[in-house]
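Reply to dn_fold:

You asked what the input looked like. This is it:
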Amino acid sequence: DHLAVVLTSDHGGLGHNHSDATQPVNYTIPFMVWGTGVAAGGDLYTVNSSYADPGDSRTSYATEPQPVRNGMMGNLVADLLDLRRISGSQMNSGRNLLVMTDLE
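and this is what came back:
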């Protein structure tokens, strides 16, 4: 009843070369969450309307609203474990990235 699995990647890419910043395969990564209270087949952007789905676009850190980024995982997991946020973290530091559909 209290298990969650969060899966992401440190970067995109195909094969040994992922330096071409114009290719979506080089900057698109998985970010998946599975567990009790997480809707099967759900979409992070449906649950989190304050974040923007970038589609095939490569967004900068100045773009607003931001997409979901893999750097948000640390504070997401801390939140799921009911732990304090990561000191000094700048991604999801407000712990507003939601994955549960049945929020208490």
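The mean pLDDT is 88.
Hope that clears it up.
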